[in-house]
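Reopening this ticket.

The earlier resolution said the output was attached, but the attachment link was broken on my side. Pasting everything inline this time so it's all in one place.
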Amino acid sequence: MRFLLKSLAAAAVVLAVVAGTIALGRWLSGPDDGSAPATKKAIAAVAVDVLDIHPTSYDVNSRYDAPDPLGVEIRFRPPGDDGDSHYLYVSVRPADGDESGGCGDHYECADWHGHGGDFHLSWQEEQPEEDPGILTLTFRTAGEERSVTYAGVLIEGDPREQDLPLSVEGDLVRLLTDDRLSATTTQEMVDADLPKWPKDDTRGDPVPTTPEVVAHWMVENGARDAPTQRPADTTAYGDGAVGAELVSRDHTTTVVLVPPDSPAVPTCGADWHCETKGDVVRGWQPGAAIAIRRTADAVMLITVRSAAIDGPPRMTARFGAAGEDYLALARGYGSFTLRTTEEFAQDVPAW
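Inline output:
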């Protein structure tokens, strides 16, 4: 019995020493900073920490009408630079499945693999007396797309070969491969104290698009500002669809935005004469013309009804104002999305 008690006592001492050692180790290494959902402020905090910059300002809604829940603009001045603030836009979003990267007509591009993901660099060189140039580096990893855009000094060729305030293959790669620059970050970054962070940081928060917003986008993108504006009938497309109608003297223009996973996504039916041009499906029947195209998060159906329509509405002169409105929207410009920003929604006049 005495032997058993002594053994138990010895075991207790060992356990106490081990527990004390673990506690001491945790105390020396700091508290366990668990993971937390990222915010715009957390994304900015990671950028400031990794790049060791001193921002002059932040903008949580630089795109105004297009929400980017984990995107933030940062203005800063490198040491010794007394000119205009340099520009950064840092963003994290789910990868969209398009692995091609792509490169526009006015950009140069480069791609490489590393750090467990794929990098895509695009840049636009300076245009004398107009634009100093700009670069964007994107990193795709584990279903996530992290990107940083920089402008501030002249881009005179491959930015990897230039002496920039923030090097591409050093600073910017280090930022994009930091585990904290993600949809899940650390509580420390969420709680970071950022001087000059805006007190009102909800202006860029996503909110559902309303019929008034759709109508405003229609006019912004070339449709005439009709005297009558009203919500479109979206019952055929189920929950989540939203749209607006602009009613003019001789024609009605309608735009409906439908979630891509809706059971009733718009298609060109058997009663329509249809053709596909680029990524836009165009169709017509006597008295109406339609166009179907995809936006960032929706399938967009454009409909123009007019007695003048008796063939493919390819030329604006043939169908007058109805044709002009149709082509303005069918060309594929504009940021028609199912969600907009809080600030933009508040600025659009109510009906």
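Reporter confirms the inline version is readable. The chain has two domains: 35-201, 207-347. Confidence is low (pLDDT under 50) at residues 1-32.
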